[in-house]
Specification:
Number of strands: 11
Radius of gyration: 19 Å
Order of helices and strands: EEEEEHEHEHHEHHEEHHEH
Largest sheet: 7 strands, mixed
Helix content: 25-40%
Length: 263
Amino acid sequence: MEKLKVHENTENEWEIAYELFGNRESKNLIFMIHGGGMESHEKAPYLTEITYEVTGKRAKTFEDMVQGNYERLTESILKDNPDILICRIDLRNHGESLVDGKMDTRNTSFPLLADDTAEVLRYIKTKYNIEQTQIVGTCMGCLVTEYMLTNPKNKDLSENVSAVVFNSPLSTQFLAFPTPNEKFNFSKYQLLMNSPDGTQFTKMRGVFDSKATLEELKERPNLHVEYASLNIPTQIFLGYGDRLLPYQRAKKLAMEMKKVNPN
């Protein structure tokens, strides 16, 4: 993997890892942004079996994916479109974008992750004279995409994006205003908001949350609508069985986006 130093000479300076696949002479780029706790190849342990002891205690068995989601997607795209250039990024605190091989507890806010991503995308776009970009995001990667493309200083990037694919997109509204039936997210929200010192909290490798993060998300509860107003053709995939992002909540947000952008 290659690395690019972002936010140079500031407290947020970081080396962001990225990897390129396909034709480096191509003018067309597909840029993939993984989900929280994942890495650029989107590989994670998956549940293979649930067993119960006589007492009723439950045990889960996991196995590692042989090939990550973005690895399979990359192969599939290049098989039919060898003239494409693909870039997969490791967000800070994920994959190879660590500090001395460890997670770092400095600011990992979504706007900052978006700024990191914009620097990498702009660097790739300039270095390889990219004329057209398509973005694929998963979960947190979708939120990072929205923060990045709605930032006025990144207008040069958003105008260059011809299409976006969102897989199980997180939203500021979902994270900042959870309902009691969204158990994990609601419990995490309560923990952070009731923390006397706003201590960071994580149950997901690579991702830190804090009271400051929630306040930041609340400032833009309709970020998904702001993004939709850019009128970039966008395809959204939702899963009925996604416990982290309830289908009905996600569908409601998607329909709000479609009202603004029929594409």
